[in-house]
């Protein structure tokens, strides 16, 4: 790789999720030719380079706690003619990992940013899950607080999209339970140890979750499919029955909505009210 100022750039390089054979020849060439490499964990990056016989330049730690502080110095070095590679611990940088602010700053500073595509955990999981691959929304890591988690799911409650996110093994069960309460019954898939020896895909439905949490290892990619049209039709009939029952009891519309929402998982107050208006107009 030429190291003249005119060819200097920030190279955003995807690295293996687990199987070293997934590093592309182009990625190896770029990493070998850069003056310095930004990595979340320099020890992990150093071990990767050693195993792949890559003689990279200077390794610098780059994570969420020092990104703002380091990005200006990084940009200065690139503008001075050096080449810099940005990697994450595994997979494609920026995808729920640090780097966005650096890339944005480089773009705004007129610095060339070059993507070197390759492994990406949520894309790999999505393609092998058997669930609809598009449209999909990647949510990264979800909030830990129950109220904030519920809010995230509610934002996607009415969208016919597949949802993809990362979760830790000790939180998977509670997160799927919350998804069921907010989104209703949908198919899901858990992908773990992607590209590694014990790669596993666990499929099911949110109303029937049977997980052996002791056997789960590592970071898990969770995929929740969109609502099934047949389920929606069936649910609509059940919701109509609930609305009719509460109306016959003499409840006010707002009270009907409140009571139906307690029993109709995945239904928003707006949709329940619209269905109630339709029933009352007949």
UniProtKB/TrEMBL annotation:
Broadest EC class assigned to this enzyme: transferase
Compartments (UniProt record): Cytoplasm
Identification of the protein by name: Ribosomal RNA small subunit methyltransferase I
InterPro entries: 4pyrrol_Mease, 4pyrrol_Methylase_sf, 4pyrrole_Mease_sub1, 4pyrrole_Mease_sub2, rRNA_ssu_MeTfrase_I
Sections of the chain in a coiled coil: none
Gene, per the UniProt record: rsmI
Lineage of producing organism: Bacteria, Pseudomonadati, Thermodesulfobacteriota, Desulfovibrionia, Desulfovibrionales
Superkingdom, natural source: Bacteria
Record EC number: 2.1.1.198
Record carries keyword S-adenosyl-L-methionine: yes
Family per record: Belongs to the methyltransferase superfamily. RsmI family.
Presence of keyword Protein transport: no
Task performed by this protein: Catalyzes the 2'-O-methylation of the ribose of cytidine 1402 (C1402) in 16S rRNA.
Catalyzed reaction equations: cytidine(1402) in 16S rRNA + S-adenosyl-L-methionine = 2'-O-methylcytidine(1402) in 16S rRNA + S-adenosyl-L-homocysteine + H(+)
Keywords: Cytoplasm, Methyltransferase, rRNA processing, S-adenosyl-L-methionine, Transferase
Xref: SUPFAM superfamilies: Tetrapyrrole methylase
Gene Ontology molecular-function annotations: rRNA (cytosine-2'-O-)-methyltransferase activity
Chain ranges of the Tetrapyrrole methylase domain: 10-209
GO cellular component: cytoplasm
CDD domains reported for this sequence: RsmI
Pfam family, one: TP_methylase
